[in-house]
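If you are new to this repository, start here. Below is one unmodified record pulled from the training split, so you can see the exact layout before writing a loader.
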Amino acid sequence: MRISVPTSNGLLLDKYGKHADSSDMYNGNPAVSFPIEIQNVPENAKTIAFTLLDFDAVPVSGFPWIHWIGANIPANTTVTIPENASRQNSGNLVQGNNSTAGPLVGETDPLTTRHYVGPTPPDKNHDYTLSIYALDTTLDLKDGFWLNEFYHAAKGHVIDKQKLSIISRA
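And here is the target side for that same chain:
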């Protein structure tokens, strides 16, 4: 599989992160998800899933920060997850909880906890890991699933997995 997202000079476009216009923010967070194009999806894939994690957050928060997770996107040989799919539910995706949903942050608004929360690196540019999974099945997940539930459900069903590093500026 080949993955692409919009960047400029090697950085995620500002509209999807910390420097987004106030109209593209929700609850103090970047809320407009970036488009993702996935090419060369295996022909036997039934669905696509993804995770967007910030491992550079470990020294800041103590754990990798979950920015967005989604599953059960119908697979074709090319899959486009359109801009703002998180808010508009374009692409028929089921979305899991991000790190704002956990008890450490304590956010309770599902428009924040179960959707894209864009990069807001507090200390320096961070390298975000977008992982794309081609699966041979539709996973038994509902909106608000946790990352570990995704990993358990996907076990034994991953046909292909690719990663893309995305840098977002502080």
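Two things worth knowing about this chain: The helical segments are 58-61, 85-88, 110-113, 147-154. The mean pLDDT is 95.
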